[in-house]
Amino acid sequence: MTRRAPQPVVLLVAVTWLLAVGAPLGAASSPPTVTPATSPGSSATPSGVAQAPGTGTTPAAGSDVQISDRAYAIASQLRCPVCTAESVADSNAEIAGEMRQMIQQQLDAGKSPKQIIRYFRQRYGDWILLDPPKSGVHLVVWLLPLLALLGGAAALVLMIRRWRAAAETTPEAPPEDVARVRDALRSEEND
Known about the structure:
Helicase, Ruva Protein, domain 3; two-stranded antiparallel ribbon; 6 helices
């Protein structure tokens, strides 16, 4: 039995799906994982400890760790490596829980949100950001929809102008056709 090459439609669907889920082209089938640096006596809240209302903590989705509002805000800017359509703050994946703990530990160590995001960008690249930066190659991605919209509008205006010009001009009939119609009308009048 011979092996057939994949159909172009199948390839198109596969590429579209990869782009839709946010998988970078040329990336491995699974994103890299990060093992959190846990230190003894870490400041993460132990599981099962409820925080009092108004203490500035937000429960992390799917984990038993309580993180601060600042950590939740940073985690909501990062893409989960496992479930790429969700943020680290909203994901139930184990790696997302570990990343939330890392964010909280780094905040407790005095790092700024920009430093923490830079830390994850160094390990994962720009792919980890839910909102890619508007510079470099990413600028093309941000401008492409606008350029497509402007190009479509320009093409539509051009087509409408051509249609109007075509509607305003009266096509000239060949002289032999005009003569044949006149002869037919004369013969009907004589009958």
